[in-house]
Specification:
Radius of gyration of chain B: 20 Å
Largest sheet of chain B: none
Helix content of chain B: over 70%
Shape of chain A: elongated
Number of strands of chain A: 0
Structural class of chain B: mainly alpha
Strand content of chain A: under 5%
Number of helices of chain B: 11
Strand content of chain B: under 5%
Distance between the termini of chain B: 54 Å
Helix content of chain A: over 70%
Structural class of chain A: mainly alpha
Distance between the termini of chain A: 28 Å
Order of helices and strands of chain A: HHHHHHHHHHH
Order of helices and strands of chain B: HHHHHHHHHHH
Oligomer: heterodimer
Largest sheet of chain A: none
Radius of gyration of chain A: 21 Å
Largest interface: A-B, 55 and 65 residues
Shape of chain B: globular
Protein backbone atom coordinates (compact mmCIF):
# COMPACT_ATOMS: atom_id res chain seq x y z
CA UNK A 1 0.00 0.00 0.00
CA UNK A 2 2.90 2.29 0.79
CA UNK A 3 3.98 2.14 -2.85
CA UNK A 4 0.60 3.43 -3.95
CA UNK A 5 0.60 6.25 -1.42
CA UNK A 6 4.05 7.30 -2.57
CA UNK A 7 2.93 7.18 -6.19
CA UNK A 8 -0.08 9.36 -5.33
CA UNK A 9 2.24 11.84 -3.65
CA UNK A 10 4.41 11.80 -6.77
CA UNK A 11 1.33 12.44 -8.93
CA UNK A 12 0.34 15.40 -6.77
CA UNK A 13 3.85 16.86 -6.55
CA UNK A 14 3.76 20.27 -8.30
CA UNK A 15 7.41 19.75 -9.34
CA UNK A 16 6.16 17.26 -11.91
CA UNK A 17 3.89 19.82 -13.53
CA UNK A 18 6.31 22.71 -14.08
CA UNK A 19 5.57 23.93 -17.61
CA UNK A 20 8.54 23.85 -19.94
CA UNK A 21 10.64 21.62 -17.67
CA UNK A 22 12.89 19.14 -19.47
CA UNK A 23 13.49 16.63 -16.70
CA UNK A 24 11.04 15.42 -15.67
CA UNK A 25 8.81 16.45 -18.53
CA UNK A 26 5.61 17.94 -17.13
CA UNK A 27 2.90 15.32 -16.72
CA UNK A 28 0.25 17.43 -18.43
CA UNK A 29 2.45 17.50 -21.56
CA UNK A 30 2.58 13.68 -21.52
CA UNK A 31 -1.20 13.47 -21.19
CA UNK A 32 -1.52 15.91 -24.08
CA UNK A 33 0.81 13.83 -26.25
CA UNK A 34 -1.07 10.66 -25.42
CA UNK A 35 -4.41 12.22 -26.30
CA UNK A 36 -2.96 13.69 -29.49
CA UNK A 37 -1.69 10.31 -30.77
CA UNK A 38 -4.97 8.66 -29.81
CA UNK A 39 -7.23 11.24 -31.43
CA UNK A 40 -5.21 11.32 -34.67
CA UNK A 41 -5.28 7.51 -34.96
CA UNK A 42 -8.94 7.09 -34.08
CA UNK A 43 -9.97 9.83 -36.54
CA UNK A 44 -7.93 8.37 -39.41
CA UNK A 45 -9.31 4.91 -38.65
CA UNK A 46 -12.86 6.29 -38.58
CA UNK A 47 -12.39 8.02 -41.93
CA UNK A 48 -11.36 4.69 -43.43
CA UNK A 49 -13.64 2.28 -41.57
CA UNK A 50 -16.95 4.11 -41.12
CA UNK A 51 -17.84 4.50 -44.84
CA UNK A 52 -16.81 0.89 -45.45
CA UNK A 53 -18.88 -0.31 -42.50
CA UNK A 54 -21.88 1.74 -43.66
CA UNK A 55 -21.59 0.27 -47.13
CA UNK A 56 -21.35 -3.31 -45.86
CA UNK A 57 -24.15 -2.82 -43.34
CA UNK A 58 -26.44 -1.19 -45.87
CA UNK A 59 -25.90 -3.57 -48.76
CA UNK A 60 -25.12 -6.70 -46.77
CA UNK A 61 -22.23 -7.34 -49.14
CA UNK A 62 -18.98 -8.46 -47.55
CA UNK A 63 -20.47 -9.44 -44.21
CA UNK A 64 -18.33 -12.56 -44.06
CA UNK A 65 -15.30 -10.38 -44.73
CA UNK A 66 -15.99 -8.19 -41.68
CA UNK A 67 -16.56 -11.15 -39.37
CA UNK A 68 -13.41 -12.89 -40.57
CA UNK A 69 -11.33 -9.72 -40.59
CA UNK A 70 -12.26 -8.57 -37.09
CA UNK A 71 -11.80 -12.10 -35.76
CA UNK A 72 -8.42 -12.49 -37.38
CA UNK A 73 -7.15 -9.08 -36.29
CA UNK A 74 -7.85 -10.04 -32.70
CA UNK A 75 -5.09 -12.64 -32.90
CA UNK A 76 -2.52 -10.16 -34.22
CA UNK A 77 -0.02 -9.30 -31.48
CA UNK A 78 0.10 -5.52 -31.09
CA UNK A 79 3.69 -5.47 -29.91
CA UNK A 80 4.82 -7.47 -32.95
CA UNK A 81 2.94 -5.18 -35.32
CA UNK A 82 4.50 -2.10 -33.70
CA UNK A 83 8.04 -3.46 -33.86
CA UNK A 84 7.67 -4.72 -37.43
CA UNK A 85 6.33 -1.34 -38.59
CA UNK A 86 9.10 0.45 -36.70
CA UNK A 87 11.77 -1.56 -38.51
CA UNK A 88 10.04 -1.14 -41.89
CA UNK A 89 9.34 2.58 -41.48
CA UNK A 90 12.77 3.17 -39.93
CA UNK A 91 14.39 2.05 -43.17
CA UNK A 92 12.88 4.95 -45.12
CA UNK A 93 11.90 7.68 -42.66
CA UNK A 94 14.47 9.66 -40.60
CA UNK A 95 14.98 8.14 -37.16
CA UNK A 96 13.43 11.08 -35.31
CA UNK A 97 10.09 10.60 -37.07
CA UNK A 98 10.13 6.82 -37.42
CA UNK A 99 8.60 6.18 -34.00
CA UNK A 100 5.74 8.59 -34.64
CA UNK A 101 4.94 7.39 -38.16
CA UNK A 102 5.21 3.70 -37.28
CA UNK A 103 3.09 4.13 -34.16
CA UNK A 104 0.33 6.02 -35.90
CA UNK A 105 0.17 3.44 -38.71
CA UNK A 106 0.01 0.62 -36.14
CA UNK A 107 -2.63 2.41 -34.06
CA UNK A 108 -4.77 3.08 -37.15
CA UNK A 109 -4.53 -0.57 -38.20
CA UNK A 110 -5.58 -1.66 -34.71
CA UNK A 111 -8.44 0.84 -34.53
CA UNK A 112 -10.02 -0.17 -37.83
CA UNK A 113 -11.57 -3.58 -36.93
CA UNK A 114 -13.68 -2.39 -33.98
CA UNK A 115 -14.80 0.77 -35.78
CA UNK A 116 -15.71 -1.24 -38.87
CA UNK A 117 -17.56 -3.90 -36.89
CA UNK A 118 -19.49 -1.27 -34.93
CA UNK A 119 -20.56 0.58 -38.06
CA UNK A 120 -21.56 -2.59 -39.87
CA UNK A 121 -23.35 -4.15 -36.91
CA UNK A 122 -25.12 -0.86 -36.17
CA UNK A 123 -26.50 -0.40 -39.66
CA UNK A 124 -27.51 -4.04 -39.87
CA UNK A 125 -29.34 -3.89 -36.55
CA UNK A 126 -31.83 -1.32 -37.85
CA UNK A 127 -35.26 -2.88 -38.26
CA UNK A 128 -35.81 -3.75 -41.93
CA UNK A 129 -39.42 -2.55 -41.66
CA UNK A 130 -38.19 0.89 -40.68
CA UNK A 131 -35.84 0.90 -43.65
CA UNK A 132 -38.62 -0.20 -46.00
CA UNK A 133 -40.89 2.49 -44.61
CA UNK A 134 -38.25 5.03 -45.56
CA UNK A 135 -37.99 3.62 -49.08
CA UNK A 136 -41.78 3.56 -49.42
CA UNK A 137 -41.96 7.24 -48.59
CA UNK A 138 -39.61 7.95 -51.49
CA UNK A 139 -36.22 8.22 -49.85
CA UNK A 140 -33.13 7.48 -51.91
CA UNK A 141 -30.71 4.85 -50.62
CA UNK A 142 -28.36 7.58 -49.43
CA UNK A 143 -31.22 9.26 -47.55
CA UNK A 144 -32.21 5.95 -46.00
CA UNK A 145 -28.64 5.57 -44.80
CA UNK A 146 -28.09 9.10 -43.55
CA UNK A 147 -31.55 9.83 -42.14
CA UNK A 148 -32.68 6.46 -40.85
CA UNK A 149 -29.93 3.91 -40.47
CA UNK A 150 -27.10 6.07 -39.13
CA UNK A 151 -29.18 8.03 -36.58
CA UNK A 152 -30.84 4.86 -35.29
CA UNK A 153 -27.59 2.96 -34.98
CA UNK A 154 -25.46 5.75 -33.51
CA UNK A 155 -25.06 4.01 -30.13
CA UNK A 156 -23.57 0.94 -31.78
CA UNK A 157 -21.42 3.02 -34.15
CA UNK A 158 -20.08 5.01 -31.21
CA UNK A 159 -19.61 1.72 -29.34
CA UNK A 160 -17.26 0.56 -32.09
CA UNK A 161 -15.27 3.79 -31.92
CA UNK A 162 -15.23 3.48 -28.13
CA UNK A 163 -13.65 0.02 -28.32
CA UNK A 164 -11.04 1.20 -30.79
CA UNK A 165 -10.24 4.32 -28.74
CA UNK A 166 -9.51 2.16 -25.70
CA UNK A 167 -7.43 -0.16 -27.82
CA UNK A 168 -5.46 2.80 -29.16
CA UNK A 169 -4.88 4.33 -25.70
CA UNK A 170 -3.58 0.97 -24.45
CA UNK A 171 -1.35 0.37 -27.45
CA UNK A 172 0.06 3.91 -27.38
CA UNK A 173 1.45 2.99 -23.95
CA UNK A 174 3.30 0.06 -25.46
CA UNK A 175 4.62 2.34 -28.21
CA UNK A 176 6.83 4.02 -25.62
CA UNK A 177 9.06 1.01 -26.23
CA UNK A 178 9.90 2.48 -29.64
CA UNK A 179 10.44 5.83 -27.91
CA UNK A 180 7.08 7.37 -28.68
CA UNK A 181 6.14 10.01 -26.10
CA UNK A 182 2.93 9.97 -24.12
CA UNK A 183 2.15 8.38 -20.78
CA UNK A 184 3.94 5.16 -21.67
CA UNK A 185 7.24 7.03 -21.59
CA UNK A 186 6.69 7.80 -17.89
CA UNK A 187 6.36 4.05 -17.20
CA UNK A 188 9.31 3.26 -19.47
CA UNK A 189 11.55 5.79 -17.74
CA UNK A 190 10.37 4.43 -14.38
CA UNK A 191 11.39 0.90 -15.39
CA UNK A 192 14.73 2.25 -16.66
CA UNK A 193 15.42 4.25 -13.48
CA UNK A 194 13.93 1.59 -11.20
CA UNK A 195 11.67 4.34 -9.86
CA UNK A 196 8.50 2.88 -8.35
CA UNK A 197 6.73 6.22 -8.28
CA UNK A 198 7.07 6.73 -11.99
CA UNK A 199 6.04 3.17 -12.84
CA UNK A 200 2.97 3.21 -10.63
CA UNK A 201 2.14 6.87 -11.18
CA UNK A 202 2.33 6.45 -14.96
CA UNK A 203 0.26 3.27 -14.83
CA UNK A 204 -2.40 4.97 -12.73
CA UNK A 205 -2.50 7.95 -15.09
CA UNK A 206 -3.08 5.70 -18.11
CA UNK A 207 -5.74 3.74 -16.28
CA UNK A 208 -7.58 6.91 -15.25
CA UNK A 209 -7.29 8.31 -18.77
CA UNK A 210 -8.76 5.11 -20.22
CA UNK A 211 -11.60 5.08 -17.71
CA UNK A 212 -12.42 8.74 -18.34
CA UNK A 213 -12.43 8.30 -22.13
CA UNK A 214 -14.55 5.17 -21.74
CA UNK A 215 -16.99 7.10 -19.57
CA UNK A 216 -17.28 9.91 -22.11
CA UNK A 217 -18.06 7.44 -24.88
CA UNK A 218 -20.58 5.64 -22.66
CA UNK A 219 -22.30 8.96 -22.09
CA UNK A 220 -22.31 9.70 -25.82
CA UNK A 221 -23.88 6.30 -26.47
CA UNK A 222 -26.57 6.98 -23.91
CA UNK A 223 -27.35 10.41 -25.32
CA UNK A 224 -27.68 9.14 -28.88
CA UNK A 225 -29.96 6.24 -28.00
CA UNK A 226 -33.48 6.70 -29.41
CA UNK A 227 -35.90 5.70 -26.73
CA UNK A 228 -38.69 4.23 -28.80
CA UNK A 229 -36.36 2.34 -31.06
CA UNK A 230 -34.27 0.31 -28.68
CA UNK A 231 -37.16 -0.35 -26.31
CA UNK A 232 -39.44 -1.92 -28.87
CA UNK A 233 -36.65 -3.98 -30.38
CA UNK A 234 -35.59 -5.33 -27.03
CA UNK A 235 -39.12 -6.35 -26.16
CA UNK A 236 -39.76 -8.03 -29.46
CA UNK A 237 -36.79 -10.33 -29.08
CA UNK A 238 -37.19 -11.19 -25.43
CA UNK A 239 -36.87 -14.83 -24.67
CA UNK A 240 -36.66 -14.67 -20.92
CA UNK A 241 -36.02 -11.50 -19.00
CA UNK A 242 -32.72 -10.25 -20.37
CA UNK A 243 -32.08 -12.09 -23.58
CA UNK A 244 -29.53 -11.85 -26.31
CA UNK A 245 -31.45 -9.64 -28.71
CA UNK A 246 -29.91 -9.13 -32.12
CA UNK A 247 -28.69 -5.74 -30.94
CA UNK A 248 -26.66 -7.19 -28.09
CA UNK A 249 -25.31 -10.02 -30.17
CA UNK A 250 -24.19 -7.69 -32.88
CA UNK A 251 -22.76 -5.32 -30.32
CA UNK A 252 -20.40 -7.92 -28.95
CA UNK A 253 -18.49 -8.15 -32.20
CA UNK A 254 -17.36 -4.60 -31.61
CA UNK A 255 -16.82 -4.75 -27.88
CA UNK A 256 -14.90 -7.93 -27.41
CA UNK A 257 -11.25 -8.57 -27.89
CA UNK A 258 -8.57 -7.06 -25.73
CA UNK A 259 -5.17 -5.79 -26.62
CA UNK B 1 15.30 -18.42 -43.52
CA UNK B 2 18.80 -19.24 -42.26
CA UNK B 3 18.13 -17.34 -39.04
CA UNK B 4 15.04 -19.43 -38.49
CA UNK B 5 16.93 -22.69 -38.96
CA UNK B 6 19.76 -21.62 -36.66
CA UNK B 7 17.39 -20.55 -33.94
CA UNK B 8 14.76 -23.26 -34.04
CA UNK B 9 15.52 -24.21 -30.44
CA UNK B 10 15.07 -20.66 -29.19
CA UNK B 11 11.83 -20.18 -31.13
CA UNK B 12 10.49 -23.51 -29.95
CA UNK B 13 11.29 -22.72 -26.33
CA UNK B 14 9.64 -19.30 -26.55
CA UNK B 15 6.61 -20.84 -28.27
CA UNK B 16 6.23 -23.47 -25.56
CA UNK B 17 6.38 -20.81 -22.86
CA UNK B 18 3.95 -18.64 -24.81
CA UNK B 19 1.48 -21.53 -24.96
CA UNK B 20 1.88 -22.23 -21.25
CA UNK B 21 1.33 -18.57 -20.38
CA UNK B 22 -1.83 -18.51 -22.53
CA UNK B 23 -3.51 -21.75 -21.45
CA UNK B 24 -3.68 -20.96 -17.74
CA UNK B 25 -5.54 -17.63 -18.13
CA UNK B 26 -7.94 -19.05 -20.72
CA UNK B 27 -8.89 -22.04 -18.56
CA UNK B 28 -8.94 -20.14 -15.26
CA UNK B 29 -10.82 -17.22 -16.78
CA UNK B 30 -13.53 -19.54 -18.08
CA UNK B 31 -13.77 -21.46 -14.81
CA UNK B 32 -14.11 -18.28 -12.74
CA UNK B 33 -16.38 -16.41 -15.14
CA UNK B 34 -18.99 -19.21 -15.32
CA UNK B 35 -20.15 -19.04 -11.68
CA UNK B 36 -19.94 -15.24 -11.79
CA UNK B 37 -22.12 -15.17 -14.90
CA UNK B 38 -24.57 -17.55 -13.25
CA UNK B 39 -24.75 -15.39 -10.12
CA UNK B 40 -25.25 -12.31 -12.30
CA UNK B 41 -28.49 -13.81 -13.60
CA UNK B 42 -29.90 -14.49 -10.16
CA UNK B 43 -30.10 -10.90 -8.95
CA UNK B 44 -30.37 -7.76 -11.02
CA UNK B 45 -28.20 -5.78 -8.59
CA UNK B 46 -25.47 -8.43 -8.75
CA UNK B 47 -25.69 -8.40 -12.51
CA UNK B 48 -24.86 -4.73 -12.78
CA UNK B 49 -21.99 -5.12 -10.31
CA UNK B 50 -20.50 -8.08 -12.18
CA UNK B 51 -20.96 -6.63 -15.67
CA UNK B 52 -19.79 -3.12 -14.75
CA UNK B 53 -16.86 -4.52 -12.77
CA UNK B 54 -15.89 -6.66 -15.72
CA UNK B 55 -15.98 -3.83 -18.22
CA UNK B 56 -14.03 -1.48 -15.91
CA UNK B 57 -11.37 -4.15 -15.37
CA UNK B 58 -11.27 -4.69 -19.08
CA UNK B 59 -10.64 -0.98 -19.66
CA UNK B 60 -7.31 -1.03 -17.79
CA UNK B 61 -4.56 -1.07 -20.44
CA UNK B 62 -2.35 -4.16 -20.39
CA UNK B 63 1.13 -2.77 -19.78
CA UNK B 64 0.02 -0.64 -16.81
CA UNK B 65 -1.71 -3.66 -15.29
CA UNK B 66 1.44 -5.76 -15.80
CA UNK B 67 3.51 -3.21 -13.87
CA UNK B 68 0.91 -2.49 -11.16
CA UNK B 69 0.39 -6.15 -10.20
CA UNK B 70 3.88 -6.72 -8.75
CA UNK B 71 3.10 -4.09 -6.10
CA UNK B 72 -0.23 -5.75 -5.29
CA UNK B 73 1.00 -9.35 -5.35
CA UNK B 74 4.43 -8.71 -3.89
CA UNK B 75 6.09 -10.43 -6.83
CA UNK B 76 9.13 -9.27 -8.75
CA UNK B 77 8.33 -7.23 -11.85
CA UNK B 78 9.88 -9.86 -14.15
CA UNK B 79 7.85 -12.69 -12.58
CA UNK B 80 5.64 -14.47 -15.13
CA UNK B 81 2.93 -14.80 -12.49
CA UNK B 82 2.10 -11.12 -12.99
CA UNK B 83 1.28 -11.82 -16.62
CA UNK B 84 -0.79 -14.89 -15.81
CA UNK B 85 -2.81 -13.00 -13.19
CA UNK B 86 -3.33 -9.98 -15.47
CA UNK B 87 -4.44 -12.12 -18.41
CA UNK B 88 -6.72 -14.17 -16.16
CA UNK B 89 -8.37 -10.94 -15.00
CA UNK B 90 -8.92 -9.88 -18.61
CA UNK B 91 -10.25 -13.33 -19.51
CA UNK B 92 -12.74 -13.15 -16.63
CA UNK B 93 -13.74 -9.63 -17.64
CA UNK B 94 -14.39 -10.73 -21.22
CA UNK B 95 -16.03 -14.04 -20.40
CA UNK B 96 -18.31 -13.03 -17.55
CA UNK B 97 -20.57 -11.00 -19.80
CA UNK B 98 -20.76 -13.75 -22.39
CA UNK B 99 -21.51 -16.28 -19.64
CA UNK B 100 -24.30 -14.13 -18.18
CA UNK B 101 -25.84 -13.48 -21.61
CA UNK B 102 -25.53 -17.10 -22.71
CA UNK B 103 -27.19 -18.41 -19.56
CA UNK B 104 -29.91 -15.77 -19.76
CA UNK B 105 -30.71 -16.86 -23.31
CA UNK B 106 -31.48 -20.45 -22.28
CA UNK B 107 -35.21 -20.85 -22.96
CA UNK B 108 -37.35 -20.50 -19.87
CA UNK B 109 -39.45 -23.49 -21.02
CA UNK B 110 -36.47 -25.81 -20.84
CA UNK B 111 -35.59 -24.62 -17.35
CA UNK B 112 -39.18 -24.93 -16.13
CA UNK B 113 -39.47 -28.40 -17.64
CA UNK B 114 -36.28 -29.48 -15.86
CA UNK B 115 -37.52 -28.03 -12.58
CA UNK B 116 -40.85 -29.80 -13.02
CA UNK B 117 -39.02 -33.08 -13.55
CA UNK B 118 -37.43 -32.59 -10.14
CA UNK B 119 -33.91 -31.50 -11.10
CA UNK B 120 -31.98 -29.77 -8.37
CA UNK B 121 -30.43 -26.39 -9.22
CA UNK B 122 -27.02 -28.06 -9.47
CA UNK B 123 -28.11 -30.90 -11.79
CA UNK B 124 -30.24 -28.55 -13.85
CA UNK B 125 -27.27 -26.28 -14.40
CA UNK B 126 -25.02 -29.07 -15.66
CA UNK B 127 -27.60 -31.02 -17.66
CA UNK B 128 -29.76 -28.22 -19.06
CA UNK B 129 -28.42 -24.68 -18.76
CA UNK B 130 -24.73 -25.29 -19.40
CA UNK B 131 -25.20 -27.42 -22.56
CA UNK B 132 -27.85 -25.11 -24.00
CA UNK B 133 -25.63 -22.08 -23.38
CA UNK B 134 -22.69 -24.01 -24.87
CA UNK B 135 -22.55 -22.56 -28.40
CA UNK B 136 -22.54 -18.95 -27.15
CA UNK B 137 -19.99 -19.81 -24.46
CA UNK B 138 -17.78 -21.39 -27.10
CA UNK B 139 -17.97 -18.26 -29.25
CA UNK B 140 -16.91 -16.19 -26.24
CA UNK B 141 -14.11 -18.58 -25.37
CA UNK B 142 -12.71 -18.31 -28.90
CA UNK B 143 -12.52 -14.53 -28.51
CA UNK B 144 -10.80 -14.90 -25.14
CA UNK B 145 -8.34 -17.41 -26.57
CA UNK B 146 -7.32 -15.25 -29.54
CA UNK B 147 -6.84 -12.06 -27.58
CA UNK B 148 -5.04 -13.76 -24.66
CA UNK B 149 -2.47 -15.27 -27.00
CA UNK B 150 -1.95 -11.90 -28.68
CA UNK B 151 -1.60 -10.15 -25.32
CA UNK B 152 0.99 -12.48 -23.81
CA UNK B 153 3.68 -10.92 -25.99
CA UNK B 154 3.30 -7.51 -24.30
CA UNK B 155 4.86 -9.21 -21.28
CA UNK B 156 8.17 -9.31 -23.15
CA UNK B 157 8.58 -5.60 -22.38
CA UNK B 158 8.89 -6.46 -18.71
CA UNK B 159 11.20 -9.39 -19.41
CA UNK B 160 8.95 -12.40 -19.93
CA UNK B 161 10.45 -15.07 -22.20
CA UNK B 162 7.71 -15.62 -24.76
CA UNK B 163 7.33 -14.91 -28.47
CA UNK B 164 7.24 -11.20 -27.65
CA UNK B 165 10.98 -11.50 -27.04
CA UNK B 166 11.42 -11.94 -30.79
CA UNK B 167 9.68 -8.59 -31.34
CA UNK B 168 11.73 -6.60 -28.84
CA UNK B 169 14.97 -8.34 -29.81
CA UNK B 170 14.24 -7.94 -33.52
CA UNK B 171 13.56 -4.26 -33.00
CA UNK B 172 16.86 -3.76 -31.16
CA UNK B 173 18.77 -5.55 -33.90
CA UNK B 174 16.76 -3.88 -36.67
CA UNK B 175 15.98 -7.36 -37.97
CA UNK B 176 12.54 -7.70 -39.56
CA UNK B 177 12.71 -11.45 -40.21
CA UNK B 178 12.88 -12.24 -36.50
CA UNK B 179 9.83 -10.08 -35.77
CA UNK B 180 7.81 -11.57 -38.63
CA UNK B 181 8.66 -15.11 -37.53
CA UNK B 182 7.45 -14.20 -34.04
CA UNK B 183 4.19 -12.77 -35.39
CA UNK B 184 3.57 -15.83 -37.56
CA UNK B 185 4.29 -18.17 -34.64
CA UNK B 186 1.82 -16.25 -32.47
CA UNK B 187 -0.84 -16.41 -35.19
CA UNK B 188 -0.24 -20.15 -35.61
CA UNK B 189 -0.75 -20.73 -31.88
CA UNK B 190 -3.98 -18.72 -32.01
CA UNK B 191 -5.16 -20.71 -35.01
CA UNK B 192 -4.35 -24.07 -33.40
CA UNK B 193 -6.15 -23.05 -30.19
CA UNK B 194 -9.16 -21.94 -32.22
CA UNK B 195 -9.31 -25.21 -34.15
CA UNK B 196 -9.00 -27.20 -30.91
CA UNK B 197 -11.85 -25.19 -29.36
CA UNK B 198 -14.09 -25.69 -32.38
CA UNK B 199 -13.38 -29.43 -32.42
CA UNK B 200 -14.01 -29.66 -28.69
CA UNK B 201 -17.31 -27.91 -29.31
CA UNK B 202 -18.24 -30.44 -32.00
CA UNK B 203 -17.40 -33.37 -29.74
CA UNK B 204 -19.15 -31.98 -26.68
CA UNK B 205 -22.13 -30.49 -28.52
CA UNK B 206 -22.90 -32.89 -31.37
CA UNK B 207 -26.36 -31.36 -31.86
CA UNK B 208 -24.86 -28.14 -33.20
CA UNK B 209 -23.16 -29.99 -36.04
CA UNK B 210 -26.31 -31.43 -37.54
CA UNK B 211 -27.56 -28.00 -38.39
CA UNK B 212 -24.57 -27.38 -40.58
CA UNK B 213 -22.96 -23.98 -40.84
CA UNK B 214 -25.35 -21.51 -39.30
CA UNK B 215 -25.27 -17.77 -39.42
CA UNK B 216 -23.83 -15.77 -36.57
CA UNK B 217 -27.14 -15.04 -34.95
CA UNK B 218 -28.54 -18.51 -35.20
CA UNK B 219 -25.87 -20.01 -32.96
CA UNK B 220 -28.23 -19.01 -30.19
CA UNK B 221 -29.31 -22.10 -28.30
CA UNK B 222 -32.86 -20.76 -28.44
CA UNK B 223 -33.12 -21.68 -32.08
CA UNK B 224 -30.59 -24.48 -32.08
CA UNK B 225 -32.44 -26.77 -29.76
CA UNK B 226 -36.02 -25.68 -29.22
Amino acid sequence: MQFFLDAFRWLLDPANYVAGAQSPLPIQARIGEHLFYSVVSVVIAAIIALPLGFYIGHTGRGRQFVIGFTGGMRALPTLGLLMALFVIVGATVPFTQAAFVASIIALVILAIPSTLAGAYAGIESVDSQTVDAGRASGMTELQVLSQIEIPLSLPLIIGGIRASALQVIATAVIASYISLGGLGSIIASGIGLNDNNRILGGAMLVTVLALVVDGIFALAQRLTRRRGFSDTRQQKTHVRGRSLGPVTVAGTTADEGKK
Amino acid sequence: MSWFIENVDLIWGLTANHVALSIVPIVLGFAIAMPLGWIANRRLALRSIVITGGSLLYTIPSLPLFVILPYVLGTKITDDRNIVVALTLYAIAMMVRTAADALAAVPADAIEAATAMGYSTWTRFWLVEFPLAGPVLLAGLRVVSASTIALVSVGAIIGSANLGYLYTNGKQRDFLEEIVIGIVASLVIALVFDVVLVLLGRVLMPWTRRRGRTRFRSILPVEGVA
